[in-house]
Amino acid sequence: MKKTSKTKDIVLFSFLTLIIILIILAMYQRDREWTKLTAMERSLSEQSRDVSNLRGSLNAMEKKLESLKVQSLSTSVANSNESSEKTPVSGGVSLAFKRAKAATQQADYAQGDWSVNALGSNIKTITPLVSSDATASDIQGYVLEGLITRDPDTLEWTGLIAKDWNISDDGLVITFNLRNDVYFSDGEPLDSSDVVFSFNFIMNEKIQAPRHRAYLEKIKTVTTDGPYKVTFTFKEPYFEAFSLAGSLEVMPEHFYKEYLEKPEVFNESKGFLIGSGPYQLADPKSWTPENGNVELVRNTRYWGDVQPSYDRILWRVIQNASARLTTYRNGDVDTYSARPIEYEKLKEDKQIMSKSQQFEYMPPVVGYSYIGWNQERKGEATLFADKRVRQAMTYLIDRDRVNKDIFLGYAETAISPFSPRSKQHDPSLKPREYNIEKGKALLKEAGFEDRDNNGVLENEEGKPFEFELTYFQGNEDTQRMILLLKDMYAKAGVKLIPTPQEWPVMIELLDKKDFEAITLGWTSGLETDIFQMFHGSQAKTNGDNFINYKNPELDKLIDEARKTVDSDKRMPIWQKAEAVMYEDQPYSFLFRRKTLAFVDKRISNLKLTKLGLNKSRLPLEVYVPKNMQKYTQ
């Protein structure tokens, strides 16, 4: 009887298990069907808009043709003896697309294939405004567009979404006339109301965009005068007013406006991304960090004068440097940014060199690495609130040795946020040399000395001088540098405690200002506005002055420089600001590093410009010839 009962229990259990599995499978199938149905509905809706837009365009063309016929009849006699106007060399496209157009005229030009890139760390979010790292910004750059773009040959601004503009004599009012043929990737037309919305959305305090608000606060209003005319009015003169207004990335109002009612959803989102650019997320709300990789597909509705070459652009997360090199060697990613120690060996690697285009250069807009000294943590002053301590910390770094041992000379010592080749830089300022005695003397002035002859500096209460240095654990060169720094500081009696972190954790620590010291890097531009990083007003939650640095003298100089439109008058002000930072050492500025890159030979039309390598420049100028393509749709 017990055996029979046990058998019945097993059968019953198996039956129930089967029912549960069938229910789960049914739910999964229903979810898939619902997802497909949602995608189909979105696709049908977008196709309906496309048909409507096409019908409108055809009607407009018919009216234009009728108008041209009338004009032709009235002027045919007068023009019969005149030669026709020559077609522009760029093929009739706008200036922004002339380089991309020239690429399409090459004999081996072809569309198709993928651009595949490697990421050394996971991304926390790619939602615009919410994200704060350079990689997310790069990804968004393929999706979102501004009104203007910079010509990499002349460095002049040219129209992109804007076809022309007007600037008032006092520089306070800038009016852009927009193209009337620009569409977002879902088929909705882009007009001036989207530009106005984008500004107002950013300036809404409920939206987590303090970094963007920091720059845009110079703008008083953004208003529309008809569907294709938008006006920016500034509160006061600003030296980058035109680039600030023209570079505002246009976010579609119809997509993002719902988050004005539920800003917390937007602020916590991971992948709400849609724009008018040449690429798009397959689903503008689909991406999450759990996806790992980021994949953009061609925007088949792209409005541009030249269509993008790649079918897809993919970023693969490969955290291990050796694995990234192996992946490049096997042809599974297109680019490998080499560490200096690798670069020397790879130049002699026949297999690598046979498949690669090699680039070694100092980018014109190269950024800088630094150690940031947090001056206030959890409401209390830190060791680094005293500028003598910060100066000492710089004197105790042998940057020449770090450059020689870690970067093999492929770097230059940074003096300030300003490039040594920029007019912002005062050439009389030289990098602080390594000087252990001067460093120890400054620390003694600040109250730290070896009071018990144990080789460690202590304050008057006997507390040893020690601090945690937070850094990204995925960068091997940074790890090696930290070990060197630890040894250098130890020679002066200072204990450095290495604190490696994953990238998402580092971003969180920055937002909360919850660290003692941190090593990172900033990107730069042709002229660097330091308001975001060093102005005292930006020492706030989620602001980029995350070291809580405040100096009223520097604030005044930054404010003065920003409102000085005349370049010849502005540069001496920046140099005075640089002198203040040189004295204060809010950061220990470390290095500007050369780019040491290998790019697969299948990528054609690679060129160095005044803005750097054109591999990812938009509109896209690079492509893969048909006989070298390896990915299909």
From TrEMBL:
Gene Ontology BP terms: peptide transport
Positions of transmembrane segments: 10-28
Residue ranges of every copy of the Solute-binding protein family domain listed in the record: 158-528
Single GO cellular component term: outer membrane-bounded periplasmic space
Gene3D superfamilies to which the protein is assigned, alphabetical: Dipeptide-binding Protein, Domain 1, Dipeptide-binding Protein, Domain 3, Periplasmic binding protein-like II
Protein name as it appears in the record: Peptide/nickel transport system substrate-binding protein
Keyword terms, alphabetized: Coiled coil, Membrane, Signal, Transmembrane, Transmembrane helix, Transport
Coiled coil region boundaries: 44-71
Stated family: Belongs to the bacterial solute-binding protein 5 family.
Native organism: Cocleimonas flava
Gene Ontology molecular-function annotations: peptide transmembrane transporter activity
InterPro entries per the UniProt record, alphabetical: Peptide/Ni-bd, SBP_5, SBP_5_dom
Superkingdom of this protein's organism: Bacteria
